[in-house]
Every structure is written in structure tokens, then in C-alpha cells.
Amino acid sequence: RCGSSLRQPGGVICIKDNMCIEEAFILDVDDASVIRSLPYLLNLTKQAGLKVVFQRMQKDFLEDIFPVPMIALDVDTTQKYLML
């Protein structure tokens, strides 16, 4: 639904979130959060009819903290079926 609200040209959706490495996702029942792996997150964005236009990892985090990708997404007009 967010993709259909983008202003064109040049509108993007930005995601910056914790990422797990070894599992597809991690559920934290204490704070009701989900930490996704990068492939899992990218698959969700593809299913939503979005494509990555920019991606970079956040730098200079401590080793015991989850890595954080920064991703900019745009509507993928090449997909036949958009799941909105």
C-alpha cells in the first residue's frame, strides 16, 4: 500500500532495521518484535511489488549489536502482479 502512495518520479520508501544473520527471522516475545534476515526482508519487499534502488550497511556498530541495513525502495513496474 505504501508503494501506491509514492510521489513519482523520485519517491522512495526507506527501511533501516536490525538484521539477523543465521536465521530467517528471530521473534522476541519480551518486546513483541521481529528481527529479519536481509534475504527474508528483500523477499518481503519483492512480494510487495517493490525493488531496491539503494542499499548500504550502517557502519561502526559494536560487534555484539545486530547489523543494520539501510534500504531505499521504489515500486517495481516490471512485475506483472503487484500484491497490494
Condensed summary:
This protein is mainly beta and 84 residues long.
Task: Fill in the keyword field for this structure.
three-stranded antiparallel beta sheet, 84 residues, mainly beta, single chain, three-stranded mixed beta sheet
- Major sheet summary line: 3 strands, antiparallel
Mean residue pLDDT: 86
**Beginning-to-end CA distance, first to last residue:** 5 Å
Number of strands: 6
Percent range for helical residues?
10-25%
Strand order, largest beta sheet: 1-6-5
The share of residues in extended strands comes to 35-45%
Computed Rg: 14 Å
Question: H/E element string?
Answer: EEEEHEE
Work out the helix count: 1
Secondary structural class: mainly beta
Q: Regions with pLDDT < 50 over 5+ consecutive residues? A: none
Description:
The protein is mostly beta strands. It has one helix at 38-47; strands spanning 13-16, 19-20, 25-28, 33-37, 50-57, 69-75. Helices cover 12% and strands 36% of the residues. Strands 1-6-5 form a 3-stranded antiparallel sheet, covered by helices on one side. Strands 2-4-3 form a 3-stranded mixed sheet. The protein is globular. The model has no long low-confidence stretch (mean pLDDT 86).
